[in-house]
């Protein structure tokens, strides 16, 4: 495979048994562009932020995990389609879904509405990628305009151990029609003793603001117990902004089923911070993400 980041992992070289008409035994093979990798993407020069890209019915969902001006975790949501290597959001744009403490259903807060686009047709020569010397085989430029700031970041998929479990639980899940407004993005990777389960939980705090928590743990035959952490940023936008983590509690995941029909149950007990309490008892989850196999 070509090691040139500009080839984006799509160029391979094969050694032929006989030389061609030009006397060369090297054959250059260019592969067609594939779909952008689902799951978490990030810009390593901006730690603590992530884009969760998932294929869903009718297109893709994109959750941007970031921080508010006070450094507290916050997430925004968009849905749209990827056409000609570019994600464009629907007419709703980038939304901040806030929950009224009295009501149960989160609603979009127009004061925090924004715009999002993702350009997957870039390579390491793009100015945003060249600035940080990006070298991943898949790159994209994430553009976000929200809350009086504009971001143009060169993002790449978060690297995880190779391997996919027999029951592919990777993707976004939620509590079903009677328990909506929150979500859980799961990534299972690795094989044998190196199996890993990581998760991003999207929920709301006691004042109805969207918050996120993250955790990861080694997985066994019966799932894993993840300690979920809330993250805070000391200075939003600062080059040397420090992150601090606070343990909130445990998320116990129990996967099952098989590739085309995966199952996932979650027991969530986050009570380490009175303002960030979120609990569910042995809840069967419903999947939002399109399955890899059918």
In terms of topology, how is this protein built?
Layout: E1 11-15, E2 26-30, E3 39-42, E4 50-56, E5 59-67, E6 73-83, E7 86-89, E8 97-98, E9 107-108, E10 115-119, H1 127-131, E11 140-146, E12 149-157, E13 171-174, E14 183-189, E15 196-204, E16 210-218, E17 224-233, E18 243-258, E19 261-270, E20 278-284, E21 286-287
Antiparallel strand pairs: 1-2, 3-4, 3-12, 4-5, 5-6, 6-7, 7-10, 8-9, 10-11, 11-12, 13-14, 13-21, 14-15, 15-16, 16-17, 17-18, 18-19, 19-20
Description of the molecule:
With 294 residues, this protein is mainly β. 2% of the residues lie in helices and 49% in strands. It has one helix and 21 strands. It has one helix at residues 127-131, and strands at 11-15, 26-30, 39-42, 50-56, 59-67, 73-83, 86-89, 97-98, 107-108, 115-119, 140-146, 149-157, 171-174, 183-189, 196-204, 210-218, 224-233, 243-258, 261-270, 278-284, 286-287. The strands form four sheets. A nine-stranded antiparallel β-sheet has the order 20-19-18-17-16-15-14-13-21, with no helix packed on it. Strand 5 (59-67) and strand 6 form a beta hairpin. The chain is globular, with a radius of gyration of 20 Å. The model has no long low-confidence stretch (mean pLDDT 89).
């Amino acid at each position: 495979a070509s090691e040139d980041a500009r080839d984006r992992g799509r160029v391979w070289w094969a050694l032929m048994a006989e030389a061609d008409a030009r006397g060369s035994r090297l054959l250059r093979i260019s592969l067609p562009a594939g779909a952008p990798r689902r799951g978490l993407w990030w810009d390593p020069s901006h730690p603590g932020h992530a884009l969760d890209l998932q294929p869903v019915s009718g297109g893709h969902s994109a959750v941007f995990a970031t921080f508010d001006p006070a450094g507290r975790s916050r997430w925004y949501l968009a849905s749209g389609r990827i056409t000609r290597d570019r994600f464009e959001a629907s007419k709703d744009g980038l939304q901040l879904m806030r929950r009224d403490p009295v009501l149960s259903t989160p609603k979009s807060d127009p004061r925090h509405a924004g715009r999002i686009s993702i350009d997957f047709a870039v390579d390491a020569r793009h100015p945003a990628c060249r600035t940080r010397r990006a070298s991943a085989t898949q790159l994209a430029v994430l553009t976000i305009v929200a809350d009086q700031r504009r971001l143009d970041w060169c993002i790449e998929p978060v690297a995880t151990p190779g391997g996919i479990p027999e029951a592919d639980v990777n993707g976004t899940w939620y509590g079903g029609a009677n328990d909506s407004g929150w979500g859980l993005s799961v990534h299972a990777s690795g094989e044998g003793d190196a199996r890993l389960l990581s998760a991003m939980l999207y929920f709301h705090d006691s004042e109805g603001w969207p918050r996120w928590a993250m955790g990861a743990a080694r997985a066994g035959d019966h799932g894993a117990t993840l300690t979920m952490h809330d993250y805070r940023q000391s200075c939003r936008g600062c080059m040397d902004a420090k992150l601090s983590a606070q343990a909130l509690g445990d998320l116990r995941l129990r996967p099952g089923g098989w590739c085309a029909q995966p199952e996932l149950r979650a027991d969530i007990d986050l009570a380490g911070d009175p303002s960030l309490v979120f609990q569910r008892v042995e809840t069967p989850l419903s999947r939002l993400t399109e399955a890899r196999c059918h």
